[in-house]
Write a structure and sequence with these properties.
Layout (H helix, E strand, L loop, with lengths): L1 H8 L3 H8 L5 H4 L8 H13 L3 E6 L7 H20 L4 E5 L10 H17 L4 E3 L7 H12 L5 E6 L5 H10 L3 E5 L14 H16 L5 E4 L3 H13 L7 E6 L4 H9 L4 E7 L4 H10 L1 H13 L1
Parallel strand pairs: 1-2, 1-8, 2-3, 3-4, 4-5, 5-6, 6-7, 7-8
This protein binds flavin-adenine dinucleotide.
The site of flavin-adenine dinucleotide has 23 residues, from strand 4, strand 7 and helix 12.
Length: 303
């Protein structure tokens, strides 16, 4: 119930504007967001790199409604890729399709992604298309398949709470695509998505096994120790080398687990967001763990 309310609030523009103008929230937000500037993101990447992990840099923003705004958002990623290269930072980038125009025009979104992917190719780098709410799933996949005809230095995300994901994984693997597997962070109805944690987790494990067996390099994105253990066990039992997949975790979440996986010799990528538009991202992190909400409220009331 609380989760549903927080996910509903994450889509309310009025509250976003209020929060963005209310400096007190920064302290709590900083736990999940590296900072407002690209340089802040880069500092966080360098720190993560020095600890033996790699990263993916995300410029916060979604649901862009003007073509110029979508084009400018893609421009930020071009600059980020230049900066990453100049600084020899070990990170790729993650981009939300609606930030670069998915809800304005699919073609525009594809063009913007093509610009980012081409720039990444110049630097031998990689672009991840994040996956958003189910109203975007098919359009995101359409853009993905269309771009696959031309590029291979990019990948997509699959959410294990969706019933359709098993079929999507099969299709993407057939196309040779690289997948980040995650549980899914949005509120989805029972007609299209598993509602019980156990079902989402079981589907995760099932799809993880299918992906690891494919011989394609994928990302297993979770903080769930049970699933991480099952992934390690499956890889070990099937002689799947540790270098042939990576674990992915979010900045500021289960940091000790991140370090432990690095110590054990696994490849670990940290998703590092930066930027001003932190509100929806932050609210989804609160929704994932009610304890975060109490931490937030405590600091909010103290101010
Ligand atoms: C690298 C990465 C990229 C992602 N990209 C996408 C995407 O493109 N699209 C999408 O829909 N979702 C994405 N997600 C979010 C994902 O779908 C889940 O919502 C999120 O990871 C929480 O699920 P979990 O697998 O960690 O398992 P859970 O069962 O939710 O959590 C397992 C444990 O992890 C810890 N934990 C989890 N979340 C939090 C939190 N917010 N704060 C503190 N502790 C927490 C808790 O200890 C919890 O018990 C991404 C997640 C990661 C790690």
């Amino acid at each position: 119930m609380l989760k549903a309310i927080l996910l509903y609030l994450s889509r309310q523009k009025g509250i976003q504007d209020f929060m963005l103008n209310f400096g007190v929230t920064r302290k709590v937000v900083n736990r999940f967001v590296s900072g407002e500037r690209m340089e802040d993101g880069l500092v966080a990447v360098k720190k993560v790199n020095s600890e033996g992990a790699i990263a993916t840099l995300d410029h916060l923003g979604e649901e862009t409604s003007e073509p110029e705004e979508a084009k400018a958002a893609a421009g930020v990623y071009l600059n980020a890729l230049d900066l990453i290269n100049e600084n020899q930072a070990d990170t790729n980038v993650s981009v939300k399709p609606t930030q670069v125009g998915l809800k304005i025009d699919k073609k525009l979104c594809e063009e913007n992604f093509a610009r980012i992917i081409e720039r990444a190719k110049e630097y031998n780098n990689f672009v991840r298309m994040d996956m958003e709410g189910s109203d975007c799933t098919q359009d995101t996949l359409d853009v993905f398949y269309s771009l696959r005809e031309k590029y291979d230095n990019f990948g997509i995300v699959i959410q294990t709470y969706l019933y359709r994901s098993e079929k999507d994984v099969e299709d993407i693997l057939k196309a040779g695509g690289r997948i980040r597997l995650c549980k899914g962070a949005y509120k989805e109805p029972k007609e299209i998505a598993f509602q019980r944690k156990q079902e989402v987790d079981d589907n995760f494990v099932k799809l993880m096994k299918r992906m690891l067996k494919s011989g394609i390099y994928h990302g297993i994105a979770t903080h769930d120790e049970n699933i991480i253990k099952k992934t390690k066990d499956f890889a070990g039992e099937n002689n799947i080398p540790r270098e042939s997949f990576e674990f992915q975790l979010l900045y500021g979440i289960r940091t000790e687990l991140q370090h432990q996986l690095v110590r054990e010799g696994y490849k670990v990528r940290i998703y590092i967001p930066f930027g001003m538009q932190w509100y929806p991202y932050f609210m989804r992190r609160l929704a994932e763990r009610p304890a975060n909400l109490f931490f937030f409220l405590k600091n909010f009331l103290r101010a």
